[in-house]
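Example S7 (structure tokens).
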């Protein structure tokens, strides 16, 4: 099906998986997709997988070629990249979408692991809620102190700015999606121009969700977004440098006021550690003043950790997240600098100009 030459879908679902230099993660992701073998939901009969090699420089092309030997798995090379019109991922997704035969298109990433049956359950969920677009936020797999301390902060702020209930409310204009699992009706996707219409967007999942939500309003549909540990998990970054590069690319776009956000989180650190220091070290405080400081400190803890709890991360990761604030602030400011001053970001060996 293409935008210029539409045809009736012949399958229920097309899974589109773009991959650039993903030799480490792609095999496990593919295995989890190929394990989707519920009765009545057979690969090649009801659904297909479209693998898109995005000019990889590692063993990804060989992995894709081997996987394409399985009936229902297709290998599609990404079209030549035009940096003036597309980022690499958007180009790869748009290339595959034009060859997809499914009534629904699922865009997912190589760093995801899908639970058995999650594809058919997602289709049922989209139909149940009359959603033109359904997106899941996966369970995050983290390793190392840096990731454990930082990731709850990022995801708690995302849950604050993009509360799933509001995103899913058709009366609200707020839209969001996670590109690691983005299921969209093919008709709605092509009606809004798909990834071509958001070709230069670094935060393409949110931009696409906005377009689809506006379109869905005209058809009496909506979009649905939720945290879905029952459906899939992901390890977004294997190393600290990968995490720094990834969040530098996205943070200034994800949050409406990143500099103000950085200032508030610095204040959290100051209050968290400063209040106990003042209460213990200042000799001139009387008892009621120390008690007042203690109450203020408890309120600081409650406010901070009730916010971080929205991240859906384990207790230990949330508990140490206060120590991740310096890194979070650094990444926020670094992201703002790249987007608004240098006007370029780096990702997977490519440089993209920004429009902020």
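Recovered sequence:
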């Amino acid at each position: 099906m293409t935008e210029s030459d539409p045809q009736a879908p012949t399958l229920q679902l097309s899974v589109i998986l773009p991959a650039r230099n993903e030799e480490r993660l792609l095999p496990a992701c593919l295995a989890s997709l190929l394990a989707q073998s519920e009765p009545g939901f057979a690969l090649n009969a009801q659904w297909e997988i479209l693998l898109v090699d995005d000019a990889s420089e590692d063993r990804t092309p060989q992995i894709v070629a081997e996987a394409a030997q399985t009936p229902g798995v297709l290998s599609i090379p990404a079209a030549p990249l035009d940096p003036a019109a597309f980022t690499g991922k958007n180009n790869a997704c748009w290339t595959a979408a034009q060859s997809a035969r499914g009534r629904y298109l699922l865009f997912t990433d190589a760093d995801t692991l899908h639970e058995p049956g999650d594809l058919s359950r997602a289709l049922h969920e989209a139909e149940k809620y009359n959603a033109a677009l359904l997106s899941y936020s996966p369970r995050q797999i983290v390793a190392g102190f840096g990731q454990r301390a930082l990731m709850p902060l990022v995801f708690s702020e995302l849950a604050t700015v993009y509360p799933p209930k509001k995103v899913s409310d058709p009366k609200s204009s707020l839209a969001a999606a996670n590109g690691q699992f983005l299921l969209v009706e093919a008709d709605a996707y092509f009606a809004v121009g798909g990834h071509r219409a958001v070709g230069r967007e670094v935060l393409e999942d949110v931009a696409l969700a906005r377009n689809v939500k506006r379109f869905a309003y005209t058809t009496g549909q909506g979009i649905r977004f939720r945290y879905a540990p029952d459906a899939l998990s992901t390890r977004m970054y294997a190393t600290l440098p990968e995490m720094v590069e990834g969040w530098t690319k996205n943070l200034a776009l994800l949050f409406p006021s990143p500099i103000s956000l950085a200032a508030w989180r610095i204040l959290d650190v100051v209050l968290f550690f400063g209040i106990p220091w003042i209460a213990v070290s200042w000799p001139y405080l009387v008892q009621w003043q120390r008690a007042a400081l203690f109450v203020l400190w408890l309120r600081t803890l409650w406010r901070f950790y009730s916010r971080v709890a929205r991240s859906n991360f384990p207790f230990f990761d949330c508990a140490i997240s206060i120590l991740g604030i310096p890194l979070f602030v650094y990444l926020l400011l670094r992201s703002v600098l790249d987007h608004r001053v240098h006007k370029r970001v780096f990702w997977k060996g490519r440089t993209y100009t920004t429009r902020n």
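Notes on this example. The radius of gyration is 22 Å.
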